[in-house]
Amino acid sequence: MTEVYRRDGRLRLTIIGGFLGSGKSTWLRHQLHERSFGPVCLLVNEAAETSIDDLLLGGAEQVKVLAGGCACCEGRNALVAALLRICEKQDSTDGQRLSGVLLETSGLADPTAIAKTLLTDPVLTRRFVVDEVIVLMDAINGPLQLAQEYLGRRQIEAAERIIVTKIHGTPTDQVVRLVKTLRILNPAAEIEGAELGVPWQLPSDAAVRPYELPALPAFSEPIQSYRLDVSREAGWTGLSVWLSALLAARGDQIVRVKGVVESPAGRLLLQSVHRAVQPPEILPAVPANSDGAKLESNFIVLLGRGIDEKTLNRSWSKLVEAK
Ligand SMILES: [Zn+2]
Question: Which residues form the CobW C-terminal domain (predicted)?
Fold first, then answer.
């Protein structure tokens, strides 16, 4: 379990996405009741569909309704303002110290766009870290949303954790097919099941095939993960220059970058969402209860589509050799 408060004092922002009806509020209410996220402020950007009173009872330290439209598009400024107000409150001596903010997004939000807002705001990026993007999908309507909705696929691609809900009562075959399809759409995400907020075992069946999704214009190719070994000396600066150039040229194809790189300052965590790069973060040396296994570093994982792995490696080698 991670520490309640980050050592650098920044607040963790957890973005919770998923279509209307995917069970975000139910799931959240349960997590708050269990205090899974520690002392948090809940920001709800949902069109009056959520019963705030219920949520209050659930145990969030603070609940705020984010009006002014969907936080990924027309309500962007309202989101920035709300986050800044939370910072101000934290800086004043009254009020409880928070470990983070949970943002329950509107059903129509693209979590990537929200993460970008945060990563590109010079003030917010010093106060917040996008800790996790959690996307819920209900087993009943999920297959259709993936087949028909551009946004459904965007949300799944943005997720670091996907929670499949409403499993109970849905034909097992359908759940298995959905889970297999989700794995293809986002090979890097953790996929879990939940029923009324409680973890629920996902069924499996080797014989069941994933759905064949019809092509949507922007999704002509499946997303893939590419791993690049960056252990050869290019130096931290060389790497960041190379990565900026890569994102500038291929930002549309690259959905996300995550990597851990050794630097003179320690192990650095590197993250980006499309073209927005989060300032690198120094990771703690070795976790307290480590079993002594050597921590992996000097690798970058790229999630994207239409990237040629050979070209990627060649471009990296060129940089190293140019040194
Ligand atoms: Zn939006």
Answer: 223-320
